[in-house]
Amino acid sequence: MLEDEGTEPDAGKKRRARQRLAIAIGSVLATAGLAYLALLLGAWGFDTRRYGLHEGRLARLLARRPLLEQVVQAFADEGAELIGSPRGETELRRLAAERGGPRGDDVVRKGALWPATRVFVAGDMVYFVFFDEAGVMRDFAIASR
Asked: Fewer beta carbons under 10 A from the terminal one: N or C of the chain?
């Protein structure tokens, strides 16, 4: 009987220690999960804003209907590098695969509609700018670098 009384408190201490350990592990996991979620949301927000800024910039340019030479000169003045002038669908597909990432199909689809394309690297983005027969800007697509 004396042994039972002696083991009872030890069993309770062990149970409480396991409960504290489970609570600590649960707290660490919950904190790590929330931190991960915060980082995911931050990255999504940053990408959304970044794409939005570049989309807006090119949309404003498109509204002005600039000529090919004007676009090339304007981007050169800003430090954007002209990295391609694909001739034909094969070259456009190659450049879209190399630089378009997940938006490569959109680049090829839009590029098939227009006879001239110029590809620029502007900061952390790649611009695909499409022109008609007269050299007037008609559309664009962007991709992350």
From this structure: N
